[in-house]
Specification:
heterodimer, A: 116 residues, mainly beta, seven-stranded mixed beta sheet, 0% helix, globular, B: 116 residues, six-stranded mixed beta sheet, four-stranded antiparallel beta sheet
């Protein structure tokens, strides 16, 4: 178990540019989540995959955001035409296929995005 | 929709002493799970302790214990014999038992500083 891996750790981009983040979950976990965390706040749910299927999306996920998990393994989160309000830590988490209590979320270190 | 509130933005405690972090939540569900996560500075979020709502017995994990008051919708975390390594952000989180995707709703967090 190597844990949830996220790349890059930090990303600085200019407003209007597109960015893409990658998440590699724990290998046997079939569920993958993206959360956004702004400074001093708790994480907010963005979207969730079970295997390759994106089963739920938050209203926070505007049409500039898209997430994929093409083979049910790693996932990417793309933000198009970035805005300064997109500056945040983007957290990825994964969990095993079991009921919630028995399958807590395991988080990665996050990708910190700064939009200038 | 669920909400989770942590009313203490910051707390401090002397090493070896005991501290209690507060958490209240609002839900119309009868069965659910509650979690405390720890996020050390610049490090990944890790699970500290979890509680099933239908269990009256409070969960305990070594120096960490909870005081779960279902009627009051309160879920506080007690850290005994505080250590310098306990310095971190602590997040209370809620998961509905009928939530097929195991999504978590987080509180805003409490920053805990353990002083030597």
């Amino acid at each position: 178990d190597t844990g949830v891996s996220q790349n890059p750790r930090h990303k600085i981009t200019k407003r209007g540019q597109n960015v893409t983040f990658r998440c590699d979950p724990i290998s046997e976990h079939n569920r993958l989540y993206w959360y956004r965390q702004t400074l001093g706040q708790g994480p907010e749910f963005l979207t969730y995959f079970q295997n390759e299927a994106q089963l739920e999306k938050s209203r926070l996920l505007s049409d500039r955001f898209s997430a994929e998990r093409p083979k049910g393994s790693f996932s990417t989160l793309e933000i198009q035409r970035t805005e300064q309000g997109d500056s945040a830590m983007y957290l990825c988490a994964s969990s095993a296929p079991a009921a919630g209590y028995n399958s807590p979320l395991h988080f990665g270190n996050g990708t910190r995005l700064t939009v200038t | 929709a669920q909400t989770v509130t942590q009313s203490q933005p910051e707390m401090s405690v002397q090493e070896a002493e005991t501290v209690t972090l507060s958490c209240t939540y609002d839900t119309s569900e009868n069965n659910y799970y509650l979690f405390w996560y720890k996020q050390p500075p610049s490090r990944q979020m890790i699970l500290v302790i979890r509680q099933e709502a239908y269990k009256q017995q409070n969960a305990t994990e070594n120096r960490f214990s909870v005081n779960f008051q279902k009627a009051a919708k309160s879920f506080s975390l007690k850290i005994s014999d505080s250590q310098l390594g306990d310095t971190a952000m602590y997040f209370c989180a809620f998961m509905g038992a009928n939530n097929a995707g195991n999504m978590l709703t987080f509180g805003g967090g409490t920053r805990l500083m353990v002083k030597p």
